[in-house]
């Protein structure tokens, strides 16, 4: 799943992760990620794909946590 620079920034912010956190997951520096998000550096296909995969994993973690919280809340209501 390859993303555009704007999509990377949008989803990173939506999931509440920092440039540093995402950069570490995709193997680039936070400074480079900032350049990419601002359109100051070209987004390579490789980085776009790695960013997409990293954000997909974050999405799965958020979904899992949400499901666990909902299950706990339901159990507490009984």
From TrEMBL:
Q: Where is the HTH cro/C1-type domain?
A: 8-50
Give the GO molecular function terms: DNA binding
**Protein's name in the database:** Helix-turn-helix transcriptional regulator
């Amino acid at each position: 799943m390859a993303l555009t620079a704007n999509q990377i920034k949008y989803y990173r912010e939506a999931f509440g992760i920092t440039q540093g956190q995402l950069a570490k997951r995709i193997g680039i520096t936070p400074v480079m990620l900032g350049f990419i998000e601002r359109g100051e550096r070209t987004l390579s296909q490789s980085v776009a794909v790695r960013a997409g995969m990293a954000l997909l994993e974050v999405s799965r973690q958020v979904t899992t946590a949400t499901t666990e919280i909902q299950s706990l809340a339901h159990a507490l209501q009984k």
